Amino acid sequence: MVNLEWYRTFKAIYQSGTLTGAAESLFISQPGVSLHLSSLESYVGYKLFERAGRKMAPTERAKILYNAVSESLATLEEAEKNFQRSTEKHTPTISIGMCFETFQITLEQYISTLPFNVIIRFGDYHEMLDNLDKGILDLIITPHKGTSSKIEHQAFSSETIVLVTGSDQEDAPFQKLVRQKKYTEAEEWLKQQKWYGTTGDMEHLFRFWQLNFGHTPDFRPNYIVPNLNSIVRCLSSGKGLAVIPDFLCSREIASGQVKLLWKGHRQLKNTLYFACRKNTTYAKEIELIKGLFRKVMK
């Protein structure tokens, strides 16, 4: 008998492109994701993904299956959410979308104090905007603005994408090259160092490099870890470089555990937005969440 969770897992792998990304979005272990996928493949009788390094490339049959089940799964998730609301009239349930690292830095510490139920979802920003428009999510924290006329965006903070390093890293040669505006030589120095990256997203590194050196980097990180907060913890214990948003490591920089190496000769900034539906019935709850974010990110 087929298990609905197999299809949820299949959808998560298809949308994230990795087993790790699917595990993070579903709050289950990576072995659990693998088990669900193998069970579904055994049930349907054909292979759904081909491994390409760490990426999971969907087969043609997987594309057909995804098109067949994705809308139905979204409908079921909405029905599940509405059922919760109807059976818990005195305790609203608010679904919030954001990146994993933002949740850990901001809302995680306040979850137990909230006077309503909360569902936190992680995923691609464009997918979250779509789910907000469909009513699956009530609020998202995003650096991207959508185009739907039903959604309002409110800027509340900004982040600067910066180059950071471990406290034990020797950076005097690089700083001298930057002061002399020898950016080609500075780039060569950077490429000789050890780099950290994450499994699913290299956007920060690519955009920072393009802005400051005029092209995308021609190297891959030496150490691939699950998320940006993992990078900060790794840097705190030694050497290495990474490009990350400044608010994720501000406390470590202030304490000297991590060093701010360079903001770039052209700074890369993102505006962060609250996005919610204009006709939301949870305005009071959403304002409380917004207040907590402003408190942490002021």
TrEMBL record:
Q: Which Pfam families match?
A: HTH_1, LysR_substrate
Segments forming domain HTH lysR-type:
2-59
The family database entries (PROSITE patterns) matched by this protein are listed as:
HTH_LYSR (PS50931)
Q: Transcription regulation: is it a keyword of this entry?
A: yes
Q: What InterPro entries does the record point to?
A: LysR_HTH_N, LysR_subst-bd, WH-like_DNA-bd_sf, WH_DNA-bd_sf
Which residue stretches, if any, does this entry annotate as coiled coil?
none
Membrane-crossing ranges are none
**Mind listing the UniProt keywords for this protein, alphabetically?**
DNA-binding, Transcription, Transcription regulation
**UniProt similarity note:** Belongs to the LysR transcriptional regulatory family.
Q: What is this protein called?
A: LysR family transcriptional regulator
